[in-house]
Amino acid sequence: MEEAKARRIVGNWIFIGVAMLIIQVLLGGITRLTGSGLSITEWKPIMGALPPMTEGQWQKAFDQYQQIAQYKYLNNHFSLGDFKFIFFWEWFHRLWARFIGIVFLIPFIWFLVKKYFQAWMIGPLVSLFLLGALQGALGWIMVKSGLNDADLYVNHIRLAIHFLAAMLLIGYALIFGMSIRTERHDLVANSSLKQQLIWLILLLCVQLMYGAFMAGLKAANTAPTWPDINGSLYPGNSITDLSSIFYNKFAIHFIHRTLAYILGIWIIIWWWKAKQVHGSALFNRIKNWPLYLVLLQITLGIASVLTSQQIVLGKFGVFEWMAQLHQLTGMLLLMSLLALSYILRRKPVF
Q: In 48-196, at which residue ranges do the beta strands (DSSP E only) sit?
């Protein structure tokens, strides 16, 4: 097979993987928003692909769930039917991860046999596999933090690590796919725009981390007002020491909002500068995406805050939809910045 066609096929395969990983993160969001994450108390990477098949197996899984604090102090009114509902989302979240593994492994073997890969591709492909395995392990470490007699939910720090590891995996896959599919004439030399993008990506990663803190601590309804924060612009004495910026709900809420405003203003400035640059067709096509996405992201964030008092445990209502779309837009914003950072180069590429 000609090299260009092989590169196109392999690149499309990687991009399909990126889309599947984004869906996986969204399934994780649904799992969290429905309170389903602790419903499966065992980690069985192989046998766990099958859900309980008999009433006896269902009852055993329910009995195991009844041993943890979330059931004892939050969901002790659950019937077996209620348990089956939350079990489904956690099971499907894990099943989709297994499906991603299959979509990765089988074509990998086929492409290897058919010699679709160039030598330089093997290292990144192995790295993708290892990052995927690490992500699965971090997911179980996160779940274990809530499988005890004291905690109602998983540890928010571990949740953030799990989420950022997912972003690393998706971002790496995206850049690898672009390295396969992007042509030299698509690249643009502009050191200033490139440097600002790097800082924007780093700041956005911090913002996404605080978004995970917000999710893990259920901090949205700590301050369900906008533009003020419960009647003020500054959270008073909530930021008292270093630990408060990681554990105080009000402080985390304030930081998450503030970072959003900073990102919004900075991306508008970056977009205005990028607008003056007439680069490649690919660059011109996607340089507006960060602006659109950050404005939508801020709007959805405000909507999530304002609807956060409508949270009803076990229901997927307006707040949950806003929160889910807010997370999706955040991921797409990161992907747009990463794509542009790949296209932009400090020096001309000959």
A: 188-189
